[in-house]
Specification:
alpha/beta, five-stranded antiparallel sheet, 23% strand
Length: 488
């Protein structure tokens, strides 16, 4: 059969390459509608999220937060509290958490759901053929869900000092005395805080002028202040130039506005983003189109430049979150199985995300800098969480909510929350934006007291107060005065 010829019949309705978050959801959806689906994975089922991403990082962050609470014993009314721990035990707990969740993503579970799970290396020969370790699978459609890997910069001397990435840091069993973190994005800030709390002396080097550059400057400033208060040394506007060693001491040379700065460390953790996995399984032969950032280009229906090859997850854009991968995967699977009879365009209008620092930073929709850059008019309403009863009770009276609305209307354009459990608190706004619910309806919704989600009702009240009908209120004042039968 010619490499690009279409066979008269197919072994499978869809073959999915990669069993991370996107691949698992794609395969699950296909099996759920009784399609014949093969899921190919050469490493571990569950992918980066389970083994080196969300699960281990949040497990480590949780342990570090418990330790921080013990150190704050006086805040909770205790005279003193001490804890003894071994970093190796903390990392063992991280692995235990992974093992506990692992069955959710296992080949046994997915086989039971009707997915044919194949362990091996996939190679795409044509839009209709995938080879796995010598076995040829013919398929009506292919879904690429090969994920991404940590970006390692080409800096002089890096190979001499060695480095940790989000893939390898989980192998540590000895706490670094001095940890250098390169990158002030979500992962860099999260792990910098966690390791500082566990006892490392952490220095975070950031090329730009602030951390969390996708967030508003007020958010970046708040998180910077919190990290520095806990002992993290943050060096903005420092461009890494070269690594080296001096009498066994590892160091990084940075350029800071033309001045050379030397930062010494014991271990360096790279948190500089991820590169999509687009090579090594045959896409080069097919000429699959790539986007400017090196990811696989796709249209609004998750299709590549081949109409029967779809893509989802970290190997494509525009978002690289586990929940975004699952969102894309549903569309990729349904479109692969039912196109051209029915197609669904991927909707990114309401995409939340959360940075798991303490306090957390949660977002959905526009923030101020995005609205300004895109020329979108908005009104801003803010609420400080030091006024919230539950935050005071929890000894976490810090942070804020910022809500952008259409001028003169309660329609929500975007929400940013900085505070404890912000990732949970933002969910009400995600639902509201998804279904066109405005601040008036949130204000009219009963929220249990005392909870953190009451902040959502309070900020809706702030908006309502600012938009109160002044003429009606003046008339009501005269009406109530008349009903009192007086003039005072």
């Amino acid at each position: 059969m010619n490499k690009f010829s279409k066979p008269p019949a197919f072994d499978y309705n869809v073959v999915v390459i990669g069993a991370g978050a996107a691949g698992l959801v794609s395969a699950y959806i296909a099996a759920a509608v009784n399609a014949r689906v093969a899921l190919i994975e050469k490493h571990t089922m569950g992918g980066e999220c389970l083994t080196t991403g969300c699960v281990p990082s949040k497990a480590l962050i949780r342990s570090a937060k418990v330790l921080s609470h013990i150190r704050r014993a006086r805040d909770f009314g205790f005279r003193r509290a001490d804890v003894e721990f071994d970093f190796a035990d903390v990392m063992a707990r991280v692995q235990r958490v992974i093992k506990t969740i692992e069955p959710h993503d296992s080949a046994e579970r997915y086989t039971g759901l009707g997915v044919e799970c194949i362990h091996g290396t996939a190679h795409v020969h044509s839009p209709y053929e995938v080879e796995v370790d010598g076995r040829i699978l013919t398929t009506r459609a292919i879904i690429i869900a090969t994920g991404a890997r940590p970006f390692v910069p080409d800096l002089p001397g890096l190979d001499q000092v060695g480095c940790l990435t989000s893939d390898s840091v989980w192998g540590l069993r000895r706490l670094p005395r001095r940890l250098l973190v390169l990158g002030g994005g979500p992962l860099g800030c999260e792990l910098a805080q966690a390791f500082q709390r566990l006892g490392s002396e952490v220095t975070l080097v950031q090329r730009s002028d602030r951390v969390l550059t996708r967030e508003d400057p007020q958010v970046s400033a708040f998180i910077t202040t919190r990290l520095r208060a806990e002992g993290v040394s943050i060096l903005p506007d420092h461009r890494p130039a070269a690594f080296g060693t001096d009498a066994g001491i590892k160091y990084l040379l940075c350029d800071h506005f033309g001045r050379e700065v030397r930062v010494e460390f014991d271990e360096v953790l790279l948190a500089l983003g991820r590169n999509p996995n687009v090579t090594g399984f045959g896409l080069e032969t097919l000429g699959i189109a790539l986007a400017k950032d090196g990811s696989i280009a796709s249209d609004g229906f998750q299709r590549t430049n081949y109409p029967n090859i779809y893509v989802c997850g970290d190997v494509t854009g525009p978002y690289r979150f586990t929940h975004a991968a699952a969102h894309q995967a549903w569309h990729a699977a349904v479109n692969a199985l039912f196109s051209p009879l029915r197609r669904y365009k991927t909707d990114y209008r309401v995409m939340p995300w959360c940075t798991y620092t303490d306090p957390e930073v949660a977002r959905v929709g526009l923030n101020e800098q995005e609205a300004h850059d895109r020329g979108i008019a908005y009104e801003l309403t803010t609420y400080e969480l030091d006024e919230l009863d539950r935050a005071i009770i929890e000894e976490e009276p810090h942070g804020f909510i910022r809500v952008l609305t259409v001028p003169g209307r309660d329609t929500i354009l975007g929400v940013t929350i900085v505070g404890t459990h912000a990732g949970e608190t933002v969910a009400e706004f995600v639902l509201a934006m998804k279904h066109g619910i405005g601040l008036n309806d949130i204000l009219g919704t009963i929220h249990p007291y005392p909870t953190l989600t009451e902040a959502n009702k309070h900020i809706a009240g702030r908006w309502k107060t600012a938009h109160a009908p002044r003429g009606v209120l003046r008339w009501l004042m005269r009406f109530h005065r008349w009903r009192r039968g007086g003039t005072g």
